[in-house]
């Protein structure tokens, strides 16, 4: 954990102190929890893996013969 300086308006600091007092905590702990929640919600969403177009069969008739080709591949 590292120390940092944050500038905040007086009314925000007063509200933080009230929250800390009600929760029997410190202002620093309230700020740490709030920052953790904020950062957790803003985490970039993982992109879905796209398998479309990653391989080539060399065939040009796959769309027309899809069922037949899949059937052959699964032992029909």
Fraction in helix = 40-55%
- Shape descriptor reads rod-shaped
State the order of secondary-structure elements, H for helix, E for strand.
HHH
Task: Let me know the largest β-sheet.
Answer: none
Describe the structure.
The chain has a domain at 10-41. It has three helices and no strands. The model has no long low-confidence stretch (mean pLDDT 85). The protein is rod-shaped. By secondary structure, it is mostly helical.
Task: Give the structure's gist in a few sentences.
With 76 residues, the protein is mostly helical. It has helices at 10-22, 27-41, 66-73. It is 47% helix and 0% strand.
Topology record:
Layout: H1 10-22, H2 27-41, H3 66-73
Helix pairs in contact: 1-2
């Amino acid at each position: 954990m590292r120390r940092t300086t944050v500038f905040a308006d007086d009314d925000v600091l007063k509200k933080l102190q009230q929250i800390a007092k009600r929760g029997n905590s410190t202002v620093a702990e309230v700020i740490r929890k709030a920052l953790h929640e904020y950062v957790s919600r803003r985490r970039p969403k993982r992109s879905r893996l796209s398998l479309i177009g990653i391989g080539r069969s060399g065939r040009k008739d796959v769309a027309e013969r899809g069922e037949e080709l899949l059937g052959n591949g699964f032992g029909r």
